[in-house]
Write a structure and sequence with these properties.
By secondary structure, this protein is α+β, with helices and mostly antiparallel strands. It is about 50% helix and about 10% strand. Strands 1-3-2-4-5 form a five-stranded mixed β-sheet. Helix 4 (about 80-95) packs antiparallel against helix 11 (about 275-280) and helix 7 (about 165-195) packs parallel to helix 9 (about 235-245). Bound molecules: glutathione. InterPro entries: Glutathione-S-Trfase_C-like (IPR010987), Glutathione-S-Trfase_C_sf (IPR036282), Glutathione_S-Trfase (IPR040079), Glutathione_S-Trfase_N (IPR004045), GST_C (IPR004046), Thioredoxin-like_sf (IPR036249).
Length: about 325
């Protein structure tokens, strides 16, 4: 296993070290030397949002020239899950520097009050950045994060399309399709197939079938695409959002060879170096390493916390 290209050796050792030490893993990734100190000094280790000074070198120029992006000071909270890798792959594709905190969801740290200040929904991913006014801004929900990153830091439209263009709205269509359809449905398929303590065939059939139906919608769209991407002539956040779930298709018993266009698209995107790096941050992704043991461990790790989390939710809300 090779470390993603831009993680320093020292940070890599931390990133893949055992979590049992209970050390909070904080890594900085990015192309700019010196970024690490600049960013980590601004954050309290509790993860609380603090006032951060404004580092924009030339705020006024940015507003004058839409081609000039502000300087990011992004801290990403994520784990190696479909929603989590959506943001690491996007950040890697955009080549943005970011500080990474591996929020291991199996520890349920995502439910702690400090993190609920960042994402009130208690889930990953979320980011904190410095906004134009010099104050921190939080962004949660994967789709909202992808839109924020491209709105602010993608002036050349590597992963987006000019605002107001046809492609811009078509990109939104597929982004929302993933967020309202594939994510929730495939998430439930994983739950009933992999995590539920009792086997409920109706739940399995309902959500696995729904996942297949949604993959077919993608497959039909791709069959009409000249570029091989979901929208327009290049990769976009629409592809990134869908890909993060589609690579988990086999995990819910949906083999990709049922959908030839989708399979081709998945192979093309997964071969991109930035995407490959993003897949394995913060942890090596068993599902992408053809590692059956890794996949079994993934299942076990998630089955345990999902059950604990459900019990806690039932106590809190079951009687309401
Ligand atoms: N709608 C949210 C869903 C986020 C989500 O469900 N994240 C999962 C990991 S894939 C999570 O944090 N689960 C932890 C929990 O449920 O406590 C998004 O798109 O960002």
């Amino acid at each position: 296993m090779h470390p993603p290209a831009r993680i320093s050796k020292q940070l890599f050792a931390g990133a893949f070290g055992s979590y049992s030490t209970r050390l909070r893993s904080i890594y900085i990734l990015g192309p700019h030397p010196g970024t690490r100190d600049n960013i980590s000094n601004k954050f309290h280790s509790s993860g609380q949002i603090q006032k951060r000074s404004f580092h924009h070198t030339n705020k006024l120029d940015y507003h004058k020239s839409p081609k000039m992006a502000p300087q990011p000071h992004i801290k990403l909270y994520t784990d190696s899950t479909p929603n989590g890798i959506k943001i690491t792959t996007a950040l890697e594709e955009l080549g943005l520097p970011y500080e990474l905190e591996h929020l291991d969801i199996s520890t349920l740290r995502q439910k702690e009050p400090w993190y609920l200040e960042i994402n009130p929904n208690g889930r990953i991913p979320a980011i904190v950045d410095t906004f134009d006014d010099g104050e921190s801004i939080r962004v949660f929900e994967g789709g909202s994060i992808l839109q924020y990153l491209t709105d602010r830091y993608d002036p050349k439209h590597k992963l987006s399309f000019p605002k107001g263009s046809r492609e811009y709205y078509e990109c939104n269509n597929w982004l929302f399709f993933q967020h309202g359809g594939i994510g929730p449905m495939q998430g439930q398929a994983s739950h009933f197939l992999r995590y539920a303590p009792t086997k409920i065939q109706y739940g399995i059939d309902r959500y696995v079938t729904e996942t297949k139906r949604l993959y077919n919608v993608l497959d039909v769209q791709l069959s009409k695409s000249k570029s091989g991407f979901l929208v327009g002539d290049h990769i976009s956040i629409a592809d990134i959002a869908a890909l993060s779930w589609v690579i988990f298709g086999p995990y819910v018993d949906v083999p990709l060879d049922l959908f030839p266009n989708l399979q081709k698209w998945e192979a093309m995107l997964s071969a991109r170096p930035a995407i490959t790096r993003g897949f394995h941050i913060p942890k090596v992704l068993g599902i992408k390493s053809d590692d059956p043991e890794g996949v079994a461990k993934y299942q076990q790790r998630h089955a345990d916390w999902v059950f604990k989390g459900m019990q806690a939710d039932q106590q809190a809300f079951g009687q309401k």
